[in-house]
Design a protein that fits this description.
mainly alpha
Length: 228
C-alpha cells in the first residue's frame, strides 16, 4: 500500500458516507439533472482510482485483486447467462408477470425513472458510465484496498456498506438494495476473478431496471418498441 492508496481510499469513503448527510433531496431534481450528475460521478469514481494507480507507477493491467484478464470463458459464459436471464425476465414482465408487485416497488423510484425514449437512452448512457465507474471504485479498488487492511471477508462486507451509503440519495429502500447488491457483486468478483463480469452485471441491471421502470410507470409506452 502506498500514500496514493490511503488518500484515495479516504476520499472514496468520505464521498460515499457524506451522502448520508446530504441536504439535497434528489427526488426534487429533474431527471436530466440527475442523469448528468450520475454520469459525472461515474466518471469520477472510475477515473480517479485508475489515474492514481497509473501515477503510482503500477501497470493498470494488474489493477485490483485480479487485473483485467481474470475469469476467461467461465466469466464470459456467466455474463451470457445473466444477459439471457435479464431478457427473459423483461419479456415476462412485459407479458404481465409480477407486474402489480413490481409497479408498487418501482413507484418508490418514480422520480428517477425515464418516461420516454429520449430519457430512456439517457438513463442507459448513465447506466454504462456509472456501472463501470462504480465497479472500478468499489470492487476494483476499495475491495482490494480493504482486503489488505482487514482481510477479504470483512472487506466484502465493509465495501458493500460503503457502496450502500453512496446510494443513500435513493432513500432507505435504495440504500438497502445497493448494500445487498454490493455483497452479491463483491462475492461474484471474488469467485470469478473478473472485474469486467461485475461491471457487465452492474450496468446491464441498471439498464434493465430503467427499461422496466419506464414500461411500468408510463402506460402509454409502446410495448415492443421501448426506445420510442
Amino acid at each position: 500500500m502506498t500514500l496514493f492508496d490511503h488518500i484515495l481510499a479516504a476520499a472514496l469513503v468520505t464521498a460515499s458516507v457524506a451522502q448520508l448527510f446530504a441536504s439535497v433531496d434528489a427526488s426534487k431534481l429533474d431527471r436530466a439533472t440527475l442523469y448528468k450528475a450520475g454520469a459525472a460521478s461515474g466518471l469520477l469514481f472510475g477515473g480517479a482510482p485508475l489515474l492514481a494507480w497509473w501515477l503510482d507507477g503500477r501497470p493498470v493491467t494488474v489493477f485490483g485483486l485480479y487485473g483485467w484478464d481474470g475469469g476467461g470463458l467461465p466469466a464470459l459464459a456467466a455474463g451470457a447467462v445473466w444477459a439471457a436471464g435479464l431478457f427473459l425476465s423483461f419479456r415476462l414482465i412485459e407479458g404481465g408477470k409480477w407486474r402489480e408487485t413490481l409497479t408498487g416497488y418501482y413507484r418508490r423510484f418514480d422520480w428517477i425513472m425515464p418516461r420516454d425514449g429520449r430519457e430512456l437512452r439517457a438513463s442507459w448512457a448513465v447506466s454504462l458510465i456509472a456501472g463501470c465507474g462504480e465497479e472500478i471504485a468499489f470492487r476494483g479498488f476499495l475491495l482490494w484496498y480493504l482486503a489488505g487492511q482487514i482481510g477479504l471477508p470483512a472487506a466484502i462486507l465493509t465495501s458493500s456498506l460503503i457502496f450502500g451509503a453512496a446510494h443513500s440519495y435513493q432513500k432507505r429502500a435504495g440504500m438497502v438494495f445497493a448494500t445487498v447488491a454490493g455483497l452479491v457483486l463483491g462475492l461474484t468478483y471474488v469467485a470469478s476473478g473478473s472485474l469486467p463480469l461485475v461491471m457487465w452485471i452492474h450496468m446491464s441491471w441498471n439498464m434493465a431496471s430503467f427499461a422496466v421502470g419506464r414500461m411500468l410507470l408510463s402506460p402509454q409506452a409502446p410495448e415492443n418498441k421501448i426506445l420510442q
